[in-house]
Amino acid sequence: MDASLSLPGLSSAASAALPTGGGAASASKVSAKAGADGSPVRKAAEEFESQFMSQMLTQMWQGISTDGYFGGGNGEEMFRGLMLNEYGKQIAKTGGLGIANMVQETMLKMQEV
Prior knowledge:
Elements: H1 12-16, H2 23-34, H3 40-61, H4 73-93, H5 99-112
């Protein structure tokens, strides 16, 4: 499984020096096959990555206490899950870990059979 990360904001010279292992080529194939970003396959892939990221963030934040000068208590505990879901959506929307690209590519391959 190729798990390359895309790094936004790098110059072309800096990104050329990074080992991609075919991840960039497969990502371009996916976008060429999928057409517009609003396709149902792309939307489902981004939703999958969003949920994955939300679950990962939930585990990361589990050990953080909710007490302090400006917050804490039951209110913060109650709304933390909503905040982490939104974080997951934003991470997936801005490129995330590249999971959406791999899921989209796999879904498109499954449709070709």
